[in-house]
Amino acid sequence: MEKKRVILTGDRPTGKLHIGHYAGSLKNRVKLMEEGNYDEFYVFIADCQALTDNVGKPQKIEDSVVDVALDYLAIGLDPARVTLFIQSQVPQMAEMALYLANFVTVATLERNPTLKEEIKARGMDASLPVGFFTYPVSQAADIACFDTTLVPAGEDQSPMVEQCREIVRRVNAIYGSPEHPILVEPEILVPKQEFCRRLPGTDGRAKMSKSLNNCIYLSDSSKEVHDKVFSMFTDPTHLRKDDPGHTENNPVFIYLAAFCTDEDFARYLPQYRNLDEMKAHYERGGLGDVTCKKFLFQVLEGILAPIRERRAYWENHLDEVFTILNEGCKRAERKAAGVMDRLKSALKVDYLTNEAYKAAQRARYERKD
After folding, report:
1. For 220-314, which CATH superfamily applies?
2. Which of 330, 21, 306 is nearest to 154 (CA)?
3. Of 117, 174, 193, 368, which one has the fewest beta carbons inside 10 Å?
């Protein structure tokens, strides 16, 4: 089996994407694309996975599929270099999940720390949908379906990727060999910077979430970004400009660590050379929150303004967006079909396309006079 460098990642369409997504994964996807150190790059909209806890909200997912596609194009993902597609439009992904479910036990899924945390966070203990419980299997199928070698994901997703690796190893141990594996075992690529792993909400809560109304969306207008930044939680003990302040666990400084550069200081706040100098001033007193928030707004606008402009273009060219998705789904299906054929052949369930099988069955029932 030819070994290629294949990248796969995606998002559940449960709303527009926000700057937490940008810091944690989207920015890195564009960087990976521009570096070009890959043979194939797939980014998908995981609508089937979104159904696992939104089955009663079809309109939410339906609208969000377009929103996420627009966000992908707005951040600069190039459909000529990255295959953008929708999970539900590639049936091999669901078929793969059906087969892979036989290679993992209920007890193993129950021990998955990421799954346990998500079940608890959603209050599903008493009414857990089977689809959500088998989420790790579905995710393993998504990865395996494309011979993925690298999965860019947050550290919290490590147990999910490891689950995929375990399933793949079991398939290969039973049906393949070291020289001829059936499925490819992936690696995870975790962002190096700690702040990229989880950006807090504007209200200071640990998680940025649409339901908590504490997000800055990539599609927000300049005024919306301004208002959200200036209403951000900071340090409750920093009541006056001259008071010493705390930068640790302060969302404004966490956001600045995620997004600002030395060039931003030279352009907007030249009295400091870098963030360390600004933080030192805030901590000893003499730097007000308004100045910090104004700088953060300028930094974010430098990032979001071009994204906003590209999104406006695609919003006015939705037919082009649908064409991009349609072509991406076709490319993804061709790749997934090849992997599925290989797995089905190994599992001996390719009855009607396997000429050797048909010949053997004819021989079994051949009349012997």
Report:
1. Tyrosyl-Transfer RNA Synthetase (1.10.240.10)
2. 21
3. 368
Domain with CATH 1.10.240.10 in the chain: 220-314
Locate CATH 3.40.50.620 in the chain: 6-198+318-360
H or E segment at 151?
Answer: strand 150-152
**Cβ neighbours around 144 below 10 Å, total:** 29
Per-residue pLDDT of the chain in tens (369 residues, 90 and over written 9):
557 999 999 999 999 999 999 988 899 999 999 999 999 999 999 999 999 888 888 899 999 999 999 999 999 999 999 999 999 999 999 999 999 999 999 999 989 888 888 888 777 877 888 999 999 999 999 999 999 999 998 777 888 999 999 999 999 999 999 899 999 999 998 876 544 557 889 988 877 887 788 999 999 999 999 999 999 999 999 989 999 999 998 999 999 999 999 999 999 999 999 999 999 999 999 999 999 999 999 999 999 999 999 999 999 999 999 999 999 999 999 999 999 999 999 999 999 999 999 999 999 998 765
Three-class SS of residue 130?
helix
CATH no. of 6-198+318-360: 3.40.50.620
